[in-house]
């Protein structure tokens, strides 16, 4: 990227490229948080299902793509530790997501980036069309059928 010595981005294209990259990173973080939350809910379901069972009861667990036989007493603590690790990871990812949002907001403010939603663009197009029709009518252009 073309950056000046003071950390300024040189061209409009470089600013747009950097902004696009930052938005991509934000989307990736958001996707990862969502994925981890889904995995966390799956762990909670498993814990809820096996917690009331006899600790000596046979239980199967998928470890690295291999199904292994264990007991509920062995599996339950491991699943609970995994859940705690997921909660910690989600917390760190959520913090990173917030930092990235702030970074993007600061970047947008610094380079005066304004996001136009699709409905705003459509409203502007409609307003332009209405102004064009109104301008044509003000100039005395007659529009209609010519049946005499």
UniProtKB/TrEMBL annotation:
Keywords: Chaperone, Coiled coil
Record-level GO BP terms: protein folding; response to cold
Coiled-coil residue spans: 76-117
UniProt GO molecular function: protein folding chaperone; unfolded protein binding
Xref: CDD domains: Prefoldin_2 (cd23163)
GO CC aspect terms: cytoplasm; prefoldin complex
UniProt-listed Pfam families: Prefoldin_2
Family designation: Belongs to the prefoldin subunit beta family.
Protein's name in the database: Prefoldin subunit 2
Organism: Selaginella moellendorffii
């Amino acid at each position: 990227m073309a950056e000046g010595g003071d950390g300024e981005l040189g061209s409009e294209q470089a600013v747009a490229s950097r902004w696009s990259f930052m938005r991509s990173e934000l989307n990736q973080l958001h996707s990862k948080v969502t994925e981890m939350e889904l995995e966390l809910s799956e762990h909670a379901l498993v814990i809820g299902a096996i917690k009331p069972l006899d600790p000596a009861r046979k239980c199967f667990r998928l470890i690295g793509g291999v199904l292994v036989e264990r007991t509920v007493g062995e599996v339950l603590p491991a699943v609970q530790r995994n859940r705690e690790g997921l909660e910690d990871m989600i917390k760190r990812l959520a913090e990173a997501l917030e930092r990235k949002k702030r970074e993007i907001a600061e970047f947008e403010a610094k380079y005066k980036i304004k996001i136009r939603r699709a409905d705003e663009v459509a409203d502007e197009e409609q307003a332009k069309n209405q102004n064009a029709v109104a301008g044509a009518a003000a100039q005395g252009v007659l529009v209609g059928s010519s049946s005499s």
